[in-house]
Specification:
By secondary structure, the chain is mainly α. It has helices at about 5-20, 25-45, 50-75, 75-90, 100-115, 120-135, 140-155.
Amino acid sequence: MALPEQLTAQLARELLDAMRQQDVVRRETLRLLQNALRYEEIAKARPLTDEEVNAVLQRQAKQRRDSITEFKKGNRPDLVQREEAELVIINKYLPQQMGRDEIMAIARTVAQEVGARTPGDKGRVMGKLMPQLKGKADGNLVNTVVMELLDALAKG
């Protein structure tokens, strides 16, 4: 097995289990994950590192979050429900994501380091913060937290 073997074996076991239980959503989501990982491996023409596997899983989760947002705008609760179910399954394979408070603490430190005082300093803060949080926190949440922090700093 070319992918990190533990994950590959786990996906295969859980896919078989989902097929036995006739759990269509879980089965299809696991197949999509396997295919996304295989596709990435083929594109790179080498086995994936753990970081690359995590990046693929993060992309899959982000696609679901984006779809949920769009389906809510389009008043499609049936599709929102399916995407949310898929997101729960994908999140099972991702490392624990940081919470708002943890992100805020790191963002404060970075803001002090770069001397950020206004929302105009967002680029400098995000540029230094995102490499530290890559794979550990949702980018949209990080963006929101940084904007809140910079707004609060600007108001004094």
